[in-house]
Amino acid sequence: MSSLTSPSKPSLVNIGTHSLALYTHGPEPSSSEDPVILFVSGVASSSLVWAAVIRLLPRSLRSYTYDRSGYGSSELSPLAPTAENLALELSCLIEKAPISNPLIIVGHSWAGVLVNEFVVHPRNGPHIAGLVLVDANHETALQVLNPNNTNLQAISIGVEAYSAWGITAEHKFTQKEWDAFVSDEATEKHKLQAEKEDNEYAPSFETLRKKELENRQPLLEDKPVYIIGGFRSRDWSRLYKAGVEKGNGTEEQRSYAREMIRTADEKHMGLMKEHLKLSTKGKLVFAHESGHFVQLTQPGIVVDGVKWVLDQL
Fold it and tell me: At what angle do helices 83-96 and 188-209 cross, to 10 degrees?
């Protein structure tokens, strides 16, 4: 079993345009019919974000993480990191690796958009056994609750997010896992690619909405979908407090941010419910001790989601 905290030994998979780093965890499946787990990280996020979840998975399970283009041990892509391109590259990675077993995809944050782009490709749908969506973005999210709101950003200037959100103190990583995760996201390579992805983040939602998936639901028919919601007010109220302590934001900006925080959880719950339309077999739970990064603070809930999907198969 390869170690998630030792990202120096991936398989480099040539997908035609460049190579992506694929990490394998757990034993070889006993059958070609046994589902395997594939983790997809959010925007600007290291693949090491799944360390605690993978450590807590049943030892009998095969799972995979990968570095998206430009991150970790993966090469730069000649394509811009749009959601459509990243979904295409993921499809090529699965084909070239190859990963032929049925897939349970576990996706966080922007992976909600990436996974939908992956699912709508005709050759990918049949390969998917189920989904676990971890506080994942719905295609309408930015219209309802935009985390990049300029008022919130003004208050968070100069604030270290993981510390302000309480994640540095509350994460469930081992020290070795945490050090590796923080170090990876601190590299210049990671920061440069993160900036490229950030630039493609907002446009990707409109691109997905134009596909009018609401008229094609349930996209996954009766395949199991487990949805985990975090509490945005938890993150934002802490971020607000840290920013105000620095003197950030005008009173108008602070007032707007307070209203965002007050209404965040109700709006976010509505967005999480939208994911249930993906399948006739879905379950929605909330991680009451977590903000957006549930896999860092309550990794056991993500493992519960994987187990639930497996039980439905």
Answer: 110
Whole-angstrom distance, CA of residue 268 vs CA of residue 263: 9
Give, in degrees to the nearest 5, the angle at Cα 78 between 76 and 84: 100
Q: How far is CA 301 from CA 47, 118, 134, 212, 285, in A?
A: 18, 24, 9, 31, 9
138 vs 70, 141, 276, CA distance in Å? 25, 5, 11
DSSP state of 104: E
Q: How many CB atoms lie within 10 A of CB 161?
A: 15
Residues 38 and 106: their CA atoms lie apart, in Å, by 6
Whole-angstrom distance, CA of residue 256 vs CA of residue 152: 8
Contacts of 232 (CB under 8 A, 6+ apart): 145, 147, 264, 265, 268, 291, 292
Q: Are strands 225-229 and 282-286 parallel, antiparallel or unpaired?
A: parallel
Per-residue pLDDT of the chain (313 residues; tens, 9 = 90+): 344 434 448 999 999 999 999 999 999 999 999 999 999 999 999 999 999 999 999 999 999 999 999 999 999 999 999 999 999 999 999 999 999 999 999 999 999 999 999 999 877 777 899 999 999 999 999 999 999 999 999 999 999 999 999 999 999 999 999 999 999 999 999 999 999 999 999 999 999 999 999 999 999 999 999 999 999 999 999 999 999 999 999 999 999 999 999 999 999 999 999 999 999 999 999 999 999 999 999 999 999 999 999 999 9
CA distance 66 to 198: 19
What H or E segment, with its residue span, contains residue 307? helix 299-312
Q: How far is CA 220 from the centre of its chain?
A: 19
